[in-house]
Amino acid sequence: MITKILYLFINVFRRTNKLSCRIYITVILMVIKLKIEQLIKERGLKQRYVAKEIGVNENTIVNWIRGRSIPRLDKAILLAELLDCKITDLYDRI
Questions:
Q1: Cα separation of 66 and 11, whole Å?
Q2: Domain range 2-90, its CATH number among 1.10.260.40, 4.10.640.10, 3.90.1150.10, 1.10.510.10
Q3: Which of 48, 68, 81, 90 could form a disulfide with 63 if both were Cys (CB 3.0 to 4.6 A apart)?
Q4: Higher pLDDT, 87 or 59
C-alpha cells in the first residue's frame, strides 16, 4: 500500500513539479531508510546476510538504507519476516 502511495506521489510530482510533493517523497524515503537501517542494526545482522536471505543483491540493501529506493511489497514482506517484525514497522510514522 505504501509503495503504491509513494509511486502515486512520484507520478503527481512529475506532472505538477510542485515542491511540496518533492518534500513529502523525501520525507517518506528518509523514514523508510531509517527504520530499515535501525531494525537491521538492532538485530545485529549484516547487509550481505539480509540480501542473501531475501534474494536481492547487496547493492539493493544499500540503496534502501541510503534512501535511493524502497523495497517492493514482496521484498518488504520477506524483510519483515527476517527482521521478526510486522511489515507496518518498516513504514512506521508515515
A1: 22
A2: 1.10.260.40
A3: 68
A4: 59
